[in-house]
Amino acid sequence: MKLSPQTFLLVLFPFISFANVDMVMGDAAQDELIISWAYGNSAYAGKYSSTEFTQVVSKPGMDAGAVTIATDAAEEKHILFVPYTGYGSGNNEIISYSYSDFAYESTYYLYDQEHQRIGFVKTEDERWDALLGHSGITFCSSVTQLRMWQYSYSISVDGTLTQTGEGTWNKNYYGSECDGYSIYPAMMVGPVVCPGGNVLIGTSFGYNSSSSQWLVNHTLMFDPDSSDLLCYTIGEDWDPNLAGVMGLGCSSDTDMILLYADNTGEVNWSTFTAFSPVPESTEILPWDFPELDDPVAFTSTFELPGMLMVWYRDGEIRCRHWDGEWNNFDYFVAYSSYPPDLEEIAVCADTDGYWVAWLPGTASEPEVVFVNSDNVTGMDDRENTSIESGVFISPVANPACGYLSVEISGTASGVITVFDLSGRTVLESVIPGEGISSLGELPASGIYFIRLHHSTGVVSCKVISI
């Protein structure tokens, strides 16, 4: 359904959330990633390896994108890239490129789709070479319609896509005049594929006006064998300022986890079985962060055990690991003085760790950090951490001229670790308590992150060496 000239609607977005950083693991032997992002008035996709982006392509006039990898019958890889506007403005396209050199191959047009969010399943299946999820809201004078799509595709040796299946779900909200309302975009997390083969997505949308507010959260399960798209309603008539979906992930040993905020602003996490959109269990997240307005991402690789939840808060990128239970500490990933917007953070799983990418507010391309799995797995003996712990650490001189000293207050003792942008530890020291501690000489000029593990949590800061 499209807007006609007679049904013009002013649409406002209180919090814009697009898939502005998306990532999939490429050639694992070369630690190669395929990453998409948006900057300025264009969407980009490129390879990331050895601390730099290469073979970057762009699409002007777009402000979001999604990427994945598809393998043809000859076992050749292709990169699929969807640049889009995120405002439900009509047609978009899937562009295929050869994996080896990012050479253009073909374009598949997504006709007449008004969508606010697009996402690829990151795992291939014998029933598809690529699977794409859409969410969108369409409007007219008397109906607000939430629409969800799941489309599967096959890919030929020359990169041509052919649609092989679909699942579509609509929900009409009759009697709600759209004029004068502030319409919230159709948020979407996922899609992710579970070990049983079905695909789960989460979505939420709503409106507010001077008289009422409402938001609806859904989970939808797609069965590629039957093209069914089954819906479970998490909550209706919820205030969109307090509630909404946040993140969705999957792994080989725990099917799926959905993170969302409810109508009280509490952040919940639900686990799902392989064949049902109804949560197996739902609990309140046992820590203060992330909150609804924190950029958050999950890994979605059902071939590997466990999953990583990564989020941004108060200048820091942090993570927690799930493998049947949550570990009991936040792991500090990096310091980022310019916060990413919602959905401008992504994470993917490698065999020995996790890659985290985010787009700082002033950057033209994402920053990327590798997190070794040994640093985040296991319950550990550290207590539950809080970003606001009352403990402070700062470099004595910043920039530092090679030799690093730090000043600590608010704790009796702890362990300081200094690591570079790649996540490699360069200095480590046990400190006795408050005061100034000398840590040693930094190996080269550049940016380093300082992390202090103390008795009640973790604090961190950044230093530049010249």
Provide a brief overview of the structure:
This protein has strands spanning 21-25, 33-39, 42-49, 52-60, 64-71, 77-84, 92-98, 104-110, 117-120, 130-139, 143-155, 161-174, 182-193, 199-208, 213-223, 228-235, 244-250, 256-261, 267-272, 279-284, 296-298, 307-313, 316-322, 331-335, 345-350, 353-358, 367-372, 392-395, 403-409, 414-420, 425-431, 435-441, 446-454, 457-465.
List the helices and strands and how they pair.
Blueprint: E1 21-25, E2 33-39, E3 42-49, E4 52-60, E5 64-71, E6 77-84, E7 92-98, E8 104-110, E9 117-120, E10 130-139, E11 143-155, E12 161-174, E13 182-193, E14 199-208, E15 213-223, E16 228-235, E17 244-250, E18 256-261, E19 267-272, E20 279-284, E21 296-298, E22 307-313, E23 316-322, E24 331-335, E25 345-350, E26 353-358, E27 367-372, E28 392-395, E29 403-409, E30 414-420, E31 425-431, E32 435-441, E33 446-454, E34 457-465
Antiparallel strand pairs: 1-2, 2-3, 3-4, 5-6, 6-7, 7-8, 9-10, 10-11, 11-12, 13-14, 14-15, 15-16, 17-18, 18-19, 19-20, 21-22, 22-23, 23-24, 25-26, 26-27, 28-29, 29-32, 30-31, 30-33, 33-34
Describe the structure.
With 466 residues, this protein is an all-beta fold. The chain contains no helices and 34 strands. The N and C termini lie far apart (59 Å). Residues 1-17 and 381-388 have low confidence and may be disordered. Helices cover 0% and strands 55% of the residues. Strands 1-2-3-4 form a four-stranded antiparallel beta sheet, with no helix packed on it. The chain has a four-stranded antiparallel beta sheet with strand order 5-6-7-8, with no helix packed on it. Strand 26 and strand 27 (367-372) form a beta hairpin. The chain has two domains: 9-375, Methylamine Dehydrogenase, Chain H (7 Propeller); 392-465, Immunoglobulin-like (Sandwich). The protein is globular.
